[in-house]
Structures
1.
Amino acid sequence: MTAAPPPPTRTDRLLAALAGILAGYGGLAVAALVAVVVRPEAGPVPAVGDAVVDRTPAGVKDWAIRTFGESDKAVLEFGILVLLALIAAGLGLLALRRRAAALAGVGLLGALGVLAAVTRPDSTSAGDALPSLAGAATAAALLYVLIARLTRPRPAAAPRTDRRGFLLAGAGVAAGATAATFLARSLGSTRSEHAAASRSALRLPRPASPAPAVPPGAQLPVEGISPFVTPNKDFYRVDTALVVPRVDADTWKLRIHGSGVPQVRVFTLPELLRREVVERDITLACVSNEVGGSLVGNARWLGVRLDGLLRECGVRPPSRGGPADQLVARSVDGMTIGTPVEDVMDGRDALLAFGMNGEPLPFAHGFPVRMVVPGLYGYVSACKWLSSLELTTFAAYDAYWVPRGWSAQAPIKTQSRIDTPRPLARITAGTRPVAVAGVAWAQHRGVSRVQVRVDDGPWQDAELGAEDGRDTWRQWVHRWPATPGKHTLTVRATDGTGAVQTDRRADVMPDGATGLHSVKVTVTED
Ligand SMILES: Nc1nc2c(c(=O)[nH]1)N[C@H]1C(S)=C(S)[C@@H](COP(=O)(O)O)O[C@H]1N2
Ligand SMILES: [Mo]
């Protein structure tokens, strides 16, 4: 004896929502497992996350970096998971009454995952669709099975739905999905262990051309000033990678090709390490750095000269009749960064770097090989996790950031920053002057002068730290005989060509912020 299913109770509806979430969990677990085999970045969550990052307006991106700092990507992935859980619960509810519509919904989510994965710039094969396809199929099957327990017609004497069967099946799904997630994690970590092992095994060669020792006077004895060399762990990080690529140096290759390169050339890491290795101090800066911001750091890089390597591949700069004016660097995660060929071949220390402050590049900073070009913002020069270099023209190709509103070419603008005192500091006016100090940078032009102004007073020369080179920042200090009251301290630098840093305020978009950094402080009597 059977009866038509009565309207679902509150409990049934809760269980149906749970069914949706469990089916989603199972689907994501299977997708993650398939992604380990196909390509980790092709998993639905990383792929959708990357697609969101790409389509996020620069202003929102800057806000996210400022608000969440280095966890901005974790926050994004968490947000995607929460949203998915809500949708899954909704589809579970829908499945109670309209199973076909709910299954179509799962299919739609799967299609979104596929679309995100195959339209990634680093996607090279249709195989990237597999994780989302497998995930959606699994989720649909699980939803079907679980909901059947809640809607199956029952003998009149029995409870209206098979809740016991549902809970058993649900527990099974949860356990299976958890097991699959762990398996995916451990398989994924085997791969990243290979990468980690290749990094620990890397012995950095001695430079044939070492960097001169940092002059002792480059680091001023002032508390609160940024260290002259930024330790790797404190070095700012800016990139679009949700998952830091962990590249195995043993299988890494660099391809050099394009217009003016007669024959495609491929280099392995040992081949680069055997070349003439140079060591240089270079200060890196991000175009998204606001006036007074912290997206700038100075490191000692070890690598090979890019000009020599390119020349060996047949490349001539435009000034020597070469057909390509743009060098497009591609990374393993699909980033593209365009740099003027003229700049990297004009004699400056443009490097393919594998060492940073005495150790192999950290994964977050581009292991095994990245570009570093003195004088250009990172987004037009400093490609991390480098995989190829293509010679082309600015007319023929827009690199990643260009269609997003950033300039195709962007030399670093002269900037100076007050590190100490901190904004809104309360200082007691003692007998000794207060050290107002910080850093100034104008890479490849050098810093020749720094001046400080108190309130609307005259510009006064600050004492400069010794110059390490014109590609690095320079420390400065002004000993200020502070008087009680509220004061505004402002700094400006002059570059090596004699040009004074402009006080005109410009936004970071499209080619770097300008304006003067100032700090308000309160000085009290003893
Ligand atoms: N592959 C890749 N390389 C990249 C980026 C990126 O998003 N992906 N960001 C660039 C930007 S905008 C900057 S400022 C520098 C930052 O380098 P860092 O993270 O080592 O400080 O890397 C550049 N290289
Ligand atoms: Mo940047």
2.
Amino acid sequence: MATAASHWSSLAVCGNKPAFSEPLHVGRPNLPDKQAILERIAGALDRHWLTNGGPLIAEFERRIAAEVGVKHCIAVANGTIALELAVRGLGLSGEVIVPAFTFIASAHALAWQHVAPVFCDVDRTTHTIDAKQAEELITPRTTGILGVHLWGRACDVESLADLAARKQLALFFDAAHAFGCTHRGRSIGQFGSCEVFSFHATKFVHCGEGGAITTNDDVLAERLRLLRNFGFVGYDCVTAIGTNGKMSELAAAVGLTSLDNMATIVAANRANYDCYRRMLADIAGIKLVPFDAREVSNFQYVVLEVDDRVAGLSRDELAAALVAENVLARRYFFPGCHRMDAYRASAKCPAPPLPITELLSERVLALPTGLQVDQASILRIAGIVRTAIENAPAVKSRLSQRRAA
Ligand SMILES: *Cc1c(COP(=O)(O)O)cnc(C)c1O
């Protein structure tokens, strides 16, 4: 089954009413059970215990550790501080190799700890760090590799582990996208020295703001707990220069409720993904980034690659046509980290710089999913994509008139 194209003059870029009266967002928070959140928060208020190792945080850590299958979970305020704590906890310095095609926080967490991010290209199929190129980027200053399991798809963990072992480098992962996902049947969160999750409101399981580090290393876990809480070991004894990375009870209340609802959210994401895949399958120049069918996935990201030479519209033109319809598709991630103003002048990366990252950052487009989206809205979104691409010259000229106006 496929959607039919409508006449192009029906599109919002031609001055018609948008297909959706309310905007559809990428990463709108899933909040299926408001009552349960409020009850947990009421409990915290009744206890007058709002942070500092309260019972909700402890329960959240236990449940994350159990879900991932690791000994330790250290819950923190957000994913970025989790990455920074990991950098500190692992004692990294000098340079760390990180993919350029990721959310900027992967790089910032290193730079904020005075470790230079060295930008590596990614694999054309999985969009994760290219282990071969990572090896070429190693210098005497390199102390570690930070892989990113983009879209919930695992990095080439085995090649990276082999490389890290041979070169005596630390290996850790930004698993911000990958809670509830597996690699070779094992849960992501178990690999490297430690892995970092984000529980930001846009993520699959979320606390509003939140993050966690998971590890099987007892010594590292102890150190991370110390650094998370100013380096305090008792009421008056500080043994390390720490920070305040603590998660609050209120965030844990949201996180626990989100965990309770995981199955509902995955089911919705999966149904949405399957529906998008069917509806978009035969449109020229459009490819949905696939999930590995052998693995468990959270299906949190529905990502298109738009090949403008075949589609007749660029990714940006298709995005503009969708935004006009109130479908707020997002360019995840544009540009590559190495091209962001904060890094452009000084970015350490190979020359010619990162062809796959350049290609993907011109082509990828994330579409709305989660509990806000149903099959009827996906049919309409796919119909817009089809109409726009089948009438690419007309849509293109409309868009350039709009830009000129
Ligand atoms: C969201 C995200 C982060 C940062 O997490 P926050 O909780 O927002 O600080 C880091 N890396 C990636 C890949 C992310 O998507």
3.
Amino acid sequence: MTLTKTTCPYCGVGCGVLAGADGTLKGDPDHPANFGRLCSKGTALGETIDLDGRLLHPVVDGKRADWDSTLSLVADKFSAAIAEHGPDSVAFYVSGQLLTEDYYVANKLMKGYFGSANIDTNSRLCMASSVVGHKRAFGTDTVPGTYQDLEQADVIVLVGSNLAWCHPVLHQRIAAAKEARPDMRVINIDPRKTATSDLADTHLRIAPDGDVALFNGLLSHIAATDAVDQDYVDAHVNGFDAAIAAARDTNVADTGLTDIELQDFYALWAGTEKVMTLYSQGVNQSASGSDKVNAILNCHLATGRIGKVGAGPFSLTGQPNAMGGREVGGLANMLANHLEIENADHRDAVQSFWESPTICTQAGLKAVDLFDACASGKIKALWVMSTNPAVSMPNADAVADAIKAVPFVVVSDIMERTDTGDLADVLLPAAGWGEKDGTVTNSERRISRQRSFLPMPGETRADWKIICDVAAKMGFGDAFAFETPADVFAEYVALSADVSGFDRDLDLSVFADADYANLIPTQWPANDRRFFADGKFYHADGKAKMLPITAPTLSKTDFRLNTGRNRDQWHTMTRTGKTARLGAHLAEPYLELHPEDANAKDVTDGDLVTVSNDFGQAVLRVLVTDRVAVGQPFAPMHWTKQRSRNGTVNATLAPVTDPFSGQPALKGGDVAVAKFDAAWFGFVACANAMEPTADYAALARTQTGWQMEMAGQTLPDDWAEFTIMLTGLADADVALVTDPASGTTRIAISQDGVVHALGFFGKSPIALSRNTAINAIGTTDAPLSALSGRPAADRPDPGVTVCACLNVGRNTLLNAIAGGAATVPALGDCTGAGTNCGSCKPELAALIASATIPMAAE
Ligand SMILES: Nc1nc2c(c(=O)[nH]1)N[C@H]1C(S)=C(S)[C@@H](COP(=O)(O)OP(=O)(O)OC[C@H]3O[C@@H](n4cnc5c(=O)[nH]c(N)nc54)[C@H](O)[C@@H]3O)O[C@H]1N2
Ligand SMILES: Nc1nc2c(c(=O)[nH]1)N[C@H]1C(S)=C(S)[C@@H](COP(=O)(O)OP(=O)(O)OC[C@H]3O[C@@H](n4cnc5c(=O)[nH]c(N)nc54)[C@H](O)[C@@H]3O)O[C@H]1N2
Ligand code: SF4
Ligand SMILES: [Mo]
């Protein structure tokens, strides 16, 4: 089997993958991002490339349609809206998961041919505050360092980053470097204790949004000690005095940290030349996100610790092509190639290179404003590509209503059903990862190829091709006559050369004669090149700027809802949700709640709570844990209406944004938490999928089909009928056992002696070995013994999955720990856990330490 060299479609680490059409998948040992490593999501990619649930042909008004008439319809609707209401009456909402070639043509069509800048992207929810921070400090949007710096640093500070779960291969690289150089220090700054905190030497439980105060305090400490690099500052930095004055005005008590914690951290940071500050969504997704970024950059500029080996700030990008999207100008306030919409010379240069009829003259609508404009009727035609805003935007229910309010909505996706696709007039079938070709740029400015190793299924087309086909129907065929993604890439590189007269960082000349087919992963402007150590910046006078930053006034709320990610799921789960292995890690939408809060709300593990406010509500399973602080519950962002009735937490997040970047404050919802009084709880394992219709319902894949956790406020009349309706299995044999004393009912549905579904219902959360029920599906076990829900003596229950790669469950691990496996390597030796991708190592360590880890239903 020949394996194709390609790049993982998930996070911004951008790992190289060797993939085969039969689902073979391994890390590419030659790729400089991962040198052969993969995380649990990357390892399971082979299980997500089946055609289950794929959108394989165009759909118009819910009915299958042909490409030609669908493209004409889309072109006519966009042309008519522009003709009648002007170019700003249409919008594209795109994604950091598009490839650079897709992004380039979408941007060219909107900005150069429609003449509007109403193209914004989910990167607005992700990287916009970092972009503002970089531009304000450096005059350009550049990540100065490289991944190697992480291995060469003496101190790594992770701010608002759960690296162990979200950029696992970088986490593994740091862990390996730390093992080789035990003096290396890792500090994690997060209001919540995470798997990343478990690896760190120090976890600083900062108050939510206390980051500006923390880094202003650090700057003030730097100024008070001899850590300032005065020569560097004098020669290359403006704004030093004002920034220091503002920093001195800051009340560091706002950090919520003790004096000792602060002084230790400040002394370590200021006293270490090779210090890297890595940051992610705990920084960006905040009403003070841009200021947090500049407060961090100020410290690096004041000490001249930037762009040097092992020293510098490092913005971790989330999506595989978040960086590429920024380079091609995918945000509403940028032009291609790091050029500025507001700069007339830049606009003229791009327009003349494109030979386009027009060019946008002002910034377009940013994501939150864009959906507001949809709601208010200003947007007449909307095209959403490769993102699921009905789930991932703040105020998600209102965003869904806004999409419904647009007269004509097109969604390009790989899946037939998504919460956003369900609102569209037209669905366009996109080719997915493994089927399409193009390039992505990772967090360290490295451009790698995604290569196809599978045929495009059904009538799917690559996103860049779909956009070009629509452009052609609108009469712009000549400008979009690309035949391959290589043609698009070549034009993008040529544009970079054409505008090289402007003083910019982005320089793609290393790709000028690139052999696209055989392109090896390469950084711009050149491999291993760092920025800014030489003091060359991109403000008009060539200097950097330190900004005077004022810490925000922190609002007090009873419950500040923190949100983020799980180790084994990717965003709205359209791909990672396909594999049982990944679904088994945390199978339900949950709320981590501090024990004191749980007490106050009279709830315990396994109960359900409603999280609500004026914007909306979500019903979530409670996990009581002191890993979160009092009043700061945490919920994952992943659950959708496809998978859960009421699990979308973004329904409760206010559309509050950072004033400079427009990035929503997705880490801080003001919510009420109340016990959800369920009349019944249930668990069903079934060979086929079910509709998540109960008041609380969470659907997940299992190795034998599907499972659903459920609860409701009204009791069904008849459990047998309810289960038959749910599982769609009429004409089957039904066995039923009730236990009036405990009020539980157990139901088995079988056909020809084969167990198809097992249902367990009761008045309290169902205590049952899920694995045993799941493993009975498809067997000829006697229904009544399957119904016991207890593991047979010869088939012990492995428990909830901890190691997704080797399918090792919690019970197996606890047995091994009881048997004497007292270290992570020892657990690996006895059970295999943690020996493949290593993403679960922090959880193994936590399990050893406490013999308990928070888990959903067990
Ligand atoms: N498994 C997995 N990995 C992913 C993704 C995924 O969906 N699943 N998505 C990718 C994408 S697009 C992105 S953007 C990245 C995100 O990667 P991360 O930013 O690392 O992940 P998050 O879980 O969103 O948030 C990080 C942490 O910010 C903390 N936080 C909340 N408020 C504050 C605060 O005020 N200050 C500080 N200092 N911290 C705070 C949260 O407690 C959380 O632990 O992950 C990428 N990788
Ligand atoms: N509460 C809360 N909300 C958040 C965040 C948070 O931390 N907390 N994080 C925010 C961040 S950082 C991000 S990046 C967003 C992510 O949120 P989204 O971008 O909305 O989430 P995804 O599930 O990644 O959506 C990608 C969609 O593209 C489809 N797709 C996959 N491949 C292709 C392809 O090749 N072509 C096309 N056309 N479609 C494809 C998938 O099926 C899926 O429907 O969520 C944001 N929302
Ligand atoms: S760390 Fe994991 S998700 Fe991120 S690119 Fe690498 S394999 Fe993919
Ligand atoms: Mo993101």
4.
Amino acid sequence: MSIMKNFLNVILILCVCLNWCFTEGAEEKESGKVDSYTFQVSSLFPSSSSSCTPSSKASNKKSSLPVVHMHGACSHLSSNKDARLDHDEILRRDQARVKSIHSKLSKNNADGVSMTKSTELPAKDGTTIGSANYIVTIGIGTPKHDVSLTFDTGSGLTWTQCQPCLESCYSQQEPIFNPSTSSSYQNVSCSSPMCGNNSSCNSGTNCRYGIRYADGSVTIGVLAKEKFTLTNSDVLDNIYFGCGENNTGLFNGAAGILGLGRGKRSLPTQTATIYNNIFSYCLPSSASNTGHLTFGSDGISGSAKFTPFTSFPIPSLYGITIVGISVGDKKLEITPTTFSTYGAIIDSGTVITRLPTKVYAELRSVFKEKMSSYKATSGNGYFDTCYDFTGLDTITIPKIAFFFAGGTVVDLPGIGILYPLTRSQVCLAFAGDNEHIPAIFGNVQQKTMEIVYDVAGGRVGFAPNGCS
Ligand SMILES: *[C@@H]1O[C@H](CO)[C@@H](O)[C@H](O)[C@H]1NC(C)=O
Ligand SMILES: *[C@@H]1O[C@H](CO)[C@@H](O)[C@H](O)[C@H]1NC(C)=O
Ligand SMILES: *[C@@H]1O[C@H](CO)[C@@H](O)[C@H](O)[C@H]1NC(C)=O
Ligand SMILES: *[C@@H]1O[C@H](CO)[C@@H](O)[C@H](O)[C@H]1NC(C)=O
């Protein structure tokens, strides 16, 4: 009896540690497929303790860096620890990012980076950085100088603020990188192929770059080459990056952006001969857990299921093909053309998954039906399907699965289905704002999965339990 009790205690502690407690669904099917998740309401909210639980997967892999939530116990940007962004602000910025992706669809500047001789920028080219939730810390220069950068699969160039901040630097938590103190820093000339083909940049002068984000944030500076230290054993020479002399905007105190997008200046492309153009990550379940960003194929989960990348009108973004969605045991009525007209992308920087209006409406209606025993409550302008879980210990929600091209079915983790505003307002974490939009598979839905960007192989993979 006491052995059993101890066993249950261990299970309970494990669940609390994992911050997420699943039991197999009540509506277990004959096939053995599970159509619902049951878990504790408290597991939806960050733990109240100020301790950080590191990802065990990260430390077992080669070429792996911790990914942490910008605000919370695991972020070493310490004065930011309690400066949690409020949900309205996160969702407002998220909407701005999605809008900027839409408006970029009408232009076609390859990776949002302009190469220019001038210190002024012509247009709003970059995607809005959004709520910039996840950061990684890398070393730049010799001796190495640590900077924490926002992790972004939608950005084509890595940049950081550089002293002496000739024009302007926004305030960042860590000291600003100073190229004059690094023995490995090199300017890049206009004649470099990395500088693009801009006739207004005269050979012999330094190549300049600029990114103007759709929300008005700006970084302008020189294109440079440096030694990047990703881990103790991953020290890379001559990585091209933007050394920003004139930077303004909403970067949450991070030192810049880590560009994981497509395009020749992104970090995965530049390191393709070393890491084979493969990287993977796991976004942590909460601000008190860490995830990882891993370069190369070492340690990729054998259970990863892949779907091909498809081309997308904005070539720096990663296009995918969604062919279906199921909610519980019900498959939504999605025709092959539902998504094909406007396409879909997977994006680390968009928070909430966006779907065409009709698809969202059907998802919502099936979800509501299966949640009819819970008390519905008002939305907040971003969400229209919310529940009051006050007084409940556990809840059972329908499982949601995404069907991708190539026969790949991905069950979203339970934490990727609900967005907890407060205990009395927990919402379905999807939105549909327009019929004529590309779908965006966002970062709430990606949480705790291992997402494998096999760029060389032209495919993206998904595996469960990627962080812990
Ligand atoms: C080339 O430089 C000009 C002037 O600096 C700038 O307006 C233009 O956007 C640049 N073009 C590209 C493709 O970077
Ligand atoms: C710095 O950027 C701001 C915003 O784009 C711009 O108005 C200003 O002219 C820039 N200053 C210099 C010296 O480039
Ligand atoms: C890089 O160029 C800047 C001028 O744009 C110059 O001040 C600096 O000394 C150069 N650095 C190196 C290492 O060549
Ligand atoms: C660069 O521009 C020149 C002249 O505008 C053109 O002839 C050449 O093909 C371009 N090269 C590339 C790689 O785009």
